[in-house]
From TrEMBL:
This is aspartate-semialdehyde dehydrogenase. InterPro entries: Asp_semialdehyde_DH, Asp_semialdehyde_DH_beta, NAD(P)-bd_dom_sf, Semialdehyde_DH_NAD-bd, Semialdhyde_DH_dimer_dom. Signal peptide: none annotated. CDD domains: ASADH_C_bac_euk_like (cd18131), VcASADH2_like_N (cd02316). It is an enzyme of class 1 (oxidoreductase). Homodimer. Pathway: Amino-acid biosynthesis; L-threonine biosynthesis; L-threonine from L-aspartate: step 2/5; Amino-acid biosynthesis; L-methionine biosynthesis via de novo pathway; L-homoserine from L-aspartate: step 2/3. Keywords: Amino-acid biosynthesis, Diaminopimelate biosynthesis, Lysine biosynthesis, Methionine biosynthesis, NADP, Oxidoreductase, Threonine biosynthesis. Residues 43-158 form the Semialdehyde dehydrogenase NAD-binding domain. The active site is at C173, H286. It comes from Acacia crassicarpa (northern wattle). GO terms for molecular function: aspartate-semialdehyde dehydrogenase activity; NAD binding; NADP binding; protein dimerization activity.
């Protein structure tokens, strides 16, 4: 039975997936033929290749024809030995061990914070440059936290061939999507305060959460009680506060990631940020409402022109037909979409703007950003 709603079907799901258990990746064969392996290119390892982001790593590497000379697929012992075809070559998944990084130039990690904390430093010791998608090292003052369109200079000191390993952190997905849009405006008028409300898709909680949303939708439409294994409440036809742990200050961890990461990426400890993060029953791609208060005036027409020329941004802002960004439109897309660009009437003059932003959490919010970082190492 196919999905009862028009969400793009995640490419890593089989049509025969058992919806009552976490999905098993099918690793669909890539139809793209790589022109040739690049003898002078880096050796690459994908850590957590069986996960949703791990599979997206492969998709982006192929789409962008990343010039690797070899690629190693790493996962847990449970997945070791499985075979699949990628770019018309058969690969065998290997168990992640310290020796996995011998001879590896770049390792793309998306296997969770505990795995990153254990194996990231090991890889670095063996001379590998690690691009980590977890939160393990983001706030380490010695680890660059990078969005290539925003702060590429943070990793200027790290290049292949420098004779040693290094760690580079991928920011949280909601931070990436927000700052790709907000930073071009920040550069022009300096943001003093930012208020963000996020509407975050199931993809942010992994492939199993996406499957549970699909399952629950079917169950509710058929009048049955929804299966709640990933979240402790109904997700289909509902929304609720982000499932991250709530801290003593009343904010949850997801909200505080946006506060802390933005300050680090913008290198501005004084910028005021507050966030409210919500899970919504969308399969893939996050949406965010962003209110900006500026130090200098910035009118909406100028802001729209800035965003139209910003890297990684597409403007969808058609007031006449009430057409603005939606998660569905940006699913499986590289660019972050921005619309609802308007002056904040609660602030005097042109010192405030509201924008609405949508971006694919799995792609730009995770895998694509990491691959762009890897490209900057070349």
């Amino acid at each position: 039975m196919e999905a009862l709603f028009p969400f793009p079907k995640p490419t890593h799901f089989s049509s025969t997936t058992n919806l009552l258990t976490p999905p098993k990746p099918t690793f669909a064969s890539s139809t793209k033929v790589r022109m040739s392996l690049q003898e002078n290119g880096p050796s690459v390892a994908v850590v957590g290749v069986t996960g949703a982001v791990g599979q997206e790593f492969l998709s982006v590497l192929s789409d962008r024809n990343f010039p690797y000379r070899s690629i190693k697929m790493l996962a847990s012992k449970r997945s070791a030995g499985r075979r699949f075809t990628f770019e018309e070559k058969e690969h065998v998944i290997e168990e992640l061990t310290p020796e996995s990084f011998d001879g590896v130039d770049i390792a793309l990690f998306s296997a969770g914070g505990s795995i990153s904390r254990e194996f990231g430093p090991i890889a670095v010791e063996r001379g590998t440059i690690v691009v980590d998608n977890s939160s393990a090292f983001r706030m380490d003052e010695n680890v660059p936290l990078v969005i290539p369109e925003v702060n590429p200079e943070a990793m200027d000191h790290i290049k292949l061939g420098m004779g040693k390993g290094a760690l580079i952190a991928n920011p949280n997905c909601s931070t990436i999507i927000c700052l790709v849009a907000a930073t071009p405006l920040h550069r022009r008028a300096k943001v003093l305060r930012m208020v963000v409300s996020t509407y975050q898709a199931a993809s942010g909680a992994g492939a199993a959460a996406m499957e549970e949303l699909e399952l629950q939708t079917r169950e509710v439409l058929e009048g049955r009680s929804p299966t709640c294994k990933i979240f402790n409440q109904q997700y289909a036809f509902n929304l609720f506060s982000h499932n991250a742990s709530v801290l003593s200050n009343g904010y949850n961890e997801e909200e505080m990631k946006m506060v802390k990461e933005t300050r680090k990426i913008w290198n501005d400890k004084d910028v005021k940020i507050t966030a409210t993060c919500i899970r919504v029953p969308v399969m893939r791609a996050h949406a965010e409402s962003v209110n900006l208060q500026f130090e200098k005036p910035l009118d909406e027409d100028t802001a729209r022109d800035i965003l139209k020329n910003a890297p990684g941004v597409v403007v969808i802002d058609d007031r006449a037909s009430n057409h603005f960004p939606t998660p569905l439109e940006v699913s499986n897309k590289d660019d972050v979409a921005v619309g609802r660009i308007r002056r904040d009437l609660s602030q005097d003059g042109n010192l405030g703007l509201d924008i609405f932003v949508c971006g694919d959490q799995v792609r730009k919010g995770a895998a694509l950003n990491a691959i762009q970082i890897a490209e900057m190492l070349l």
